[in-house]
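If you are new to this repository, start here. Below is one unmodified record pulled from the training split, so you can see the exact layout before writing a loader.
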Amino acid sequence: MTSLKALLLAATAVVTASAALAADLPSRRAAPAPFVAAVPAFTWTGFHVGVNAGAAFDFKDSARISYGPAYGTFTDTTVAGFNNRSDEASFTGGGQIGYNHQFGRFVAGIEADFNYIDLDSRRAGSTTVALGPFGSATESLSGRTSIDWFGTVRGRLGFLATDSLLVYGTGGLAYANVESHASADYTLVAPPFGTFNAPYRGTRSDTRTGYTVGGGVEYAFTPNISLKGEYLYVDLGRDSVTASYTGTGSVTPGDTFSISNKTGFSVARAGLNWKFNTFGY
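And here is the target side for that same chain:
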């Protein structure tokens, strides 16, 4: 009996020692995989801000002339050279802000921009009408239209040629500061009576509204940065400036001279946008 008890105690000691030794051995179990946050898929959806720069050109400024009630034959006079305008291209630059929403392969959005511009159109002409034995009358006209800033608020609708390349059309409201000047000088040379001059001057500066249409392409280099190339045509409609008599002589009350002009121009520019993603940067 004593020998059996000793044998059981010895077996228990061996089992206990084996378990302790096994606990101290390195584990063969594979380490758990490290946690990796899922990277969100790229999307065009989100707000964006950016800058743009380019050229404004093809300044269209078609003019019509109207006269006061007492000009008589001058109403039908074509002033030589007046419709030959001079214009120029201009640098334009500014900033934009907008929002896009992607659904499938299409992207719809809205964008507003405000830009510097320096467009100027000038006209000048002169015509002399013979008055027989009473001498001659000379009509000299000049007009000027200039724009120093413009802005647009446009909708955009585009198609994704690739996940990163957006081709879009755009259109909406355009507005701009337009300054117009008009002047007229009528000189009557009548030998029996001498020379009489009637000067007329007028200026108008206001914010005109119209429409804009165009299109472009935009490429996303990263989830936040994209570069676009864009063309816009801006039409600011028709308005007029009236020149009133500024001389000291006697003229028929209410006589005026006015130039009505229809103004538009084209813009080609590049833009750089920063898109705010869902994580707020």
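Two things worth knowing about this chain: The domain at 50-122+146-179+206-238+255-276 is CATH 2.40.160 (Porin). Strands lie at 46-67, 90-103, 106-130, 136-160, 165-190, 194-220, 225-245, 256-276.
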